[in-house]
Write a structure and sequence with these properties.
This protein has 775 residues and is of the alpha+beta class. The protein has 27 helices and 15 strands. The protein folds into three domains: 450 residues, no CATH class; 106 residues, no CATH class; 133 residues.
Length: 775
């Protein structure tokens, strides 16, 4: 192996070890602060402390990011300080792990575990290739590393999601480079094994632990996700640790020992929004157990509060961050309850609808085939292997201790899958089912000593990447060929990434013409893990989508500003004017380009006037900016009571208002309300008096393409990336490539079907006035 490859691997391992050891040190430091449940064994104490250490490390890194002090030096200092503080307890922690008994069945489990651990380590040591990892998980981490913390990012909804694991990835990335985060995530999968083994011992079924860990760990999807900088393996581990904590606590149900379990539950939300279900079931179980054992409402309320408080303390920073940056603590969801300029209700519904199980069932997948597709079919992006067919066996152990709560928690944790039916959203549920299957099958005693290893060998052999490719009925999302040559330094990094990372060449071309201050608007997702520039992807937020529509306006005839709605009313002095929309429509939203005032047929200047609206007031200024192609959109479906309002600089005599609208704007019923300065509104015109005028054009209105270029310039965008063979917003790519000058662009690079354009100088002043600029 070349020296350079060896040093790279040492650096990656160093980053992962620094991250994980800091978590272990911090876990030791929590001993005087956070009480564990009564009756924990030494092994359980070490595992719980490590989990609490991960929670503490994630929170500390969040704080460093918030103050823009998240540097490798700060992380190494944190490692040194936490190590010194933990030093008195490290020996006790090390002694807690028992030497395993090496029976024949355990030898099989160990062999399978070591074989898969070695295989997974090979992938984790290689450069990142998984799609979501290289686009936004590590893309965000790279931006945080470049800017030493949070950057108030609103260019993508993925920046709004909770990022508890990304905080750990940032430590490993800053110290160990791009492979460090993958090794950290893999380490959390490995940690799942001793957790399962310890839990099985508590259940009185020690043979079930290694079997369950193997059944879960060898699943093709689990391995693929664990060796990538995703967060699902971490969520599964912490969901199970929360359950484990509850089981230990529930044996005596004391009033103490709840804050730590709550912190683990809260970290599940910090890892992934769907982890919020862990917090809900945790608090519900604590309340039910306390009420069942004491019958005291006061005691139940107190324990429930303690359980919820620990979770809230860990989850709250991410909600507060979103509240400050976006204006919606649960962004990108619940935008109807928390209106904001970045995600509108209509866009949110369209985005979520594409992920729902019901949508996929409507595309030819039937309910009866779901188990098959999750096990081996691959219709839901990944498979769990034939081991999933053992799930019904868990029901045979209904009376076995802990099987019923395992299956109950598993059912609750499967609920998010209905709203996002990617198979990896079922990983926490699959872990619980695997443990339940192990406990149920292990009832057979001596038979299980032979049956368990045999079942696991079948799962492991059929799930190996090379074998899976042979028997899978269709191409599925799975581990690629093992990167042995890359890990051993016999294949260049760039060649490997070109083979396995979509648009890696585009990213390299883009890197050659951009820097960390550049803004790139792209109509396709890019591997941002390899870019310093801030990439704005057209479909990753409502603002971005509106911006893409401005770019595509020459092709969208229904969106051309050729319809004028004239609203007449008796001549009078006007201080404020309000146009109210009075009808409902399920699919339409209200859109407008310009609003003009008239008196006696003459245009009246609205200089100094201020526009606002009941929906999306942040873009209402576009109605008065004098730009005929800058769009205001409500972002909400048409409903009675929506309004546009103009507050004039001084009372002015008017008799009509013109609204320049898209050609395809239908279903509006508008009335006019006036405030003449008295502070009260009076209705002066109804929809019957309105007149609609259509402008006839032989093609796209003049200057519409150049307006798109001006929008790019005004929003500070430097570069544009399109794909001539792409779908979605790329329908404009060919027109831009054919005549970039018409858009105020100049072609700078070509990479296959992809084109990179630079925005010409002098098109805009960077004021962002009147445009739905993505940031």
């Amino acid at each position: 192996m070349p020296l350079s490859a060896t040093l790279t691997h040492i650096q990656s391992l160093g980053g992962a070890v620094a991250c994980l050891s800091t978590a272990a040190f911090l876990g030791c430091c929590t001993a005087p602060i956070v009480a564990l449940p009564e009756g924990t064994t030494p092994v359980e104490r070490s595992l719980f402390r490590f989990g609490l250490g991960v929670v503490a490390l994630s929170g500390l890194v969040f704080a460093l990011c918030a103050v823009r002090a998240a540097t490798s030096g700060a992380f190494l200092l944190l490692w040194a300080i936490s190590g010194l503080l933990a030093l008195p307890r490290l020996e006790e922690w090390a002694r807690s792990f028992e030497r395993p008994s090496l029976t024949r069945s355990n030898a099989v489990y160990a062999a399978v575990g070591l074989a898969y651990a070695g295989l997974y380590a090979t992938y984790a040591l290689g450069p990142p290739t998984a799609s979501d990892a290289v686009t936004y998980h590590l893309g965000l981490v790279r931006q945080y590393a470049l800017h030493q913390g949070f950057v108030g990012d609103t260019r993508s909804i993925y920046a709004f999601l909770s990022q508890g694991m990304e905080m750990l990835f940032l430590v490993a990335y800053s110290i160990g480079g791009e492979s460090g985060p993958q090794l950290v995530h893999l380490a959390l999968l490995v940690t799942t094994a001793p957790v399962c083994i310890a839990f099985a011992r508590r259940a009185g079924r020690p043979l079930a632990g290694p079997f369950a860990a193997g059944l879960y760990g060898t699943a093709p999807l689990v391995g693929l996700v664990a060796v990538s900088a995703y967060n699902d393996a971490a969520l599964a581990l912490f969901a199970f640790l929360t359950f484990y904590w509850y089981i230990v606590w529930a044996e005596t149900a004391p009033a103490r020992g709840l804050a730590g379990g709550g912190a683990l539950a809260g970290f599940c939300f910090a890892v992934k929004y769907t982890g919020g279900f862990v917090g809900c079931v945790w608090v519900a179980c604590v309340a039910a157990r306390t009420w069942g054992s004491t019958g005291s409402a006061r005691r139940t309320l107190g324990c429930s509060f303690a359980a919820a408080a620990g979770a809230a303390l860990v989850a709250a920073p991410w909600l507060v961050k979103n509240w400050l940056v976006v204006g919606n603590p649960m962004a990108p969801f619940f935008s109807r309850l928390f209106p904001n300029p970045f995600v509108g209700p209509v866009w949110e519904w369209q985005y979520a609808d594409g992920l729902r199980l019901a949508t996929h069932l409507g595309r030819g997948i039937n309910v009866a085939s779901i188990p098959y597709e999750l096990a081996v079919g691959g219709a839901f992006n990944g498979v769990f292997g034939i081991g999933l067919f053992l799930a019904p066996v868990a029901l045979l152990g209904w009376r076995v201790p802990f099987v019923r709560p395992l299956l109950g928690w598993s059912a609750v944790l499967a609920l998010p899958w209905v709203e996002n039916c990617g198979a990896r959203f079922l990983m926490p549920s699959f872990l619980f089912v695997s443990v339940a299957v192990g406990l149920s099958v292990s009832r057979s005693g001596r038979l299980f000593r032979t049956l368990g290893p045999a079942l696991l060998l079948i799962q492991a052999a059929s799930s190996a990447p090379s074998v899976l490719r042979e028997w899978s009925p269709r191409p599925i999302w799975q581990l690629p060929h093992a990167p042995w040559k890359k890990v051993l330094g016999r294949r260049r990094r760039g060649d490997y990434l070109r083979r396995w990372v979509d648009r890696y060449d585009v990213a390299q071309d883009l890197a050659a013409v951009s820097d960390s201050e550049s803004r790139v608007f792209s109509l396709v997702p890019l591997p941002e893990a390899f870019l310093d520039a801030r990439v704005i992807v057209s479909f990753q937020s409502w603002r971005n989508t509106l911006f893409a529509e401005a770019l595509r306006l020459p092709l969208l005839e229904d969106d051309w500003p050729t319809r004028t709605i004239l609203l007449r009313f008796p001549p009078q002095e006007v201080a404020r004017i309000r146009i109210v929309q009075e009808t409902s429509h399920e699919w339409s939203e209200w859109r407008a380009y310009e609003l003009k005032a008239r008196s006696l047929g003459q245009a009246v200047s609205l200089s100094g006037a201020r526009a606002t609206s009941s929906a999306n007031p942040w873009l209402a200024g576009a109605l008065l900016d004098g730009e005929p192609y800058s769009l205001w959109a409500s972002g909400s479906r048409l409903r009675p009571g929506m309004f546009l309002e103009v507050d004039l600089a001084r009372p002015t005599r008017l008799d009509s208002i013109e609204i320049l609208s898209p050609r395809g704007q239908y279903f509006l019923t508008l009335s006019v309300w006036i405030d003449n300065g008295s502070g009260s509104w009076s209705r002066v015109a109804s929809d019957e008096s309105n007149e609609i005028r259509e402008s006839k054009t032989g093609g796209a209105p003049a200057g519409v393409a150049l307006a798109a270029g001006r929008a790019l310039a005004r929003c500070g965008v430097d570069l544009l990336v399109v794909d001539l063979e792409g779908d979605g917003h790329n329908d404009v790519a060919e027109a831009i490539d054919r005549n970039p000058a018409a858009y105020g662009l100049a072609k700078v690079r070509e990479s296959g079907s992809h084109r990179i354009f630079r925005v010409m100088d002098g098109l805009g002043d960077g004021s962002e006035k009147g445009f739905s600029c993505p940031h």
